[in-house]
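Hey team,

Filing this mostly as a record. A colleague (T.K.) asked me to run one chain through the structure pipeline before their review meeting, and I want the input and output archived in the tracker in case anyone asks later how it was produced. No errors, nothing strange. Just documentation.

Input sequence:
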Amino acid sequence: MSSSASVTSRPTRAATRRAPLRWLQPGILAGALVPLAVLIWRSAAGRLGADPVATLLNQLGLVALVLLLASLACTPLRIVAKWNWPLRLRKTLGLCAFLYAALHLTVYAAVDQGLALGAIIEDVSKRPFIIAGMSAFLLLVPLALTSTDAAIRRLGGARWKRLHRIVYLAGILACIHFLLRVKKDLTQPGIYAAILGVLLAIRVIDMLRKRRAASRTITAR
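Output structure:
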C-alpha cells in the first residue's frame, strides 16, 4: 500500500510544480498588454500631457524595446540558469514587441505626419534616428510573419534559426534609435544598450563554446 501511494504521489507533486507554468504565458501576454490599455485610457481621458503625440511615441517605443530585450533574454536565461521555461515565452514576447513597434510606427506615420509621404521622407532625411528605427521595424516584419509552427516546418529548423538571428541586429538598431533620439541624458538608452550587449555576449560565448566542443569531438575521432 505504501509503495502504491508513493508511486501515485510522485506525478501529483510534479504536476503541482509544473502547474504555475500553464498560467505563465497568458500572464505574460496580459501583462504585456497593460501598457497599451493604460495608454488607450489616458488618451480617452485626455491625460497624455501637453504633447500627446510625443507621449504616445515615447511610451510605445519604450515598451517595444523592453519587450524585445525580454524576448532576447529567454535563450541566455536557459544558457546561464539552465531554465527551459523562458523559451515558452520567447515567441509571445517577440510578437508583443512587434505589436508595440507597429503601433509606434503607425502613430508616427498616421498621426504625427498625417500619412504625408513627402513629409515623412523629408523628416527621415533630416533625422538619422528614424532610419535606425524603421530599419529595426523592417527586420522584425519577417520574424513576425515566420513565427508560426507552419512557417518553421516550411523553412526547416536550421533556416528558421538563421533567419531569426537577425533579431539581434533589430535590437541593436532599436537601441541606436533610442540613443540618437535622446539628446541630453543618455542614461536610460545606455542601460538598455548595455543589457543588449550582455545578452549578445552570452550568446556569442555559448556559440564559441559549442564550436570548440564540436571540434574536439571531431579531433578525437
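Quick notes for T.K.: The longest helix spans residues 187-220. Confidence is low (pLDDT under 50) at residues 1-17.
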